[in-house]
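so my prof wants the structure for this chain in the tokens format not the other one, which i didnt know existed until like an hour ago. anyway here's the sequence
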Amino acid sequence: MQAVNTLNRSLRGTAMRAGQLLLIRPATSALAVRPSSLFREALLPRHSTNFTRGYATSQPSLPIQSLGVAAYEYVPPTGANLPPLTKYPKLYIKEIGRRIKWRLQMGLRVILLRVRYKRKARWNEWREEATSTYVELNEAFARRNTTEVSRLSTMFVSAHLEGRIKNMDKDWELSWELEKFLEPVKLISVSPVDMGNDSAVTYLQLVYRFYSQQKLELTYAKNRKVPKKTDERKVLDYIVFVMNMDTGEIRVSGSLFECPVTEPIPTQVMSEGLILNSMKKHGDIFRKKPAPTDFSAV
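here's what i got, hopefully its the right format
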């Protein structure tokens, strides 16, 4: 427990050094934990319950709050990140091939969940739980409620959010509202998280796409007559969740961005140091998104 608290304090320091108050969400955010062999071979060796740098507990499996986005997950590009067929036919065809491979992988993971781990998929229920958690976490962050932030997210996310909350100007009150979804919430990927027991799996990683219209308001607390500052915008988020399938508990564990066709498909990370760095990086769900893909440079 002391090791976990130490890592938490370190992550808070990293988040606080990010510095400025984030009043407007980036246009894109996302999240994830990785497939079975990652935890079995990299995080939790078959004959060990220890994690890197004294991070794990002595229990046979990690608590849900200790999980993060251990590696990159493929997220299909859309909009400006998708190459036009008429101008870049080779890149477009390449992306189609990548999507076919991605869909096959998702199908195999679903089969793994049903056949190997004997788990029944409850897609509608999981989507509703994830959506509710996504909304509640944003509301808790706007209210600066660190207790709720900690309850709704894993330590890698809560550390960054708590750091941002500490840097907020206390003279201003923040209000966040999800006005409407611009498209149905979409499941991007599902991954059973194997802790080393071939016959059972407790945790499931889910990545959802949220495209919505959101409103952010700032009110000057010392003088209510000061006009509010309001920002309305369309927000695209790819959020990673980790779910305990035995208890139904679900938490935000990070965020992801779309994968440009000009870059290789993300591969599994095996280095313990890289895994921990990945969890820290993807835990900052409000980090700046990358610029749109420049296809002319290919």
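also thought this was worth mentioning. The radius of gyration is 20 Å.
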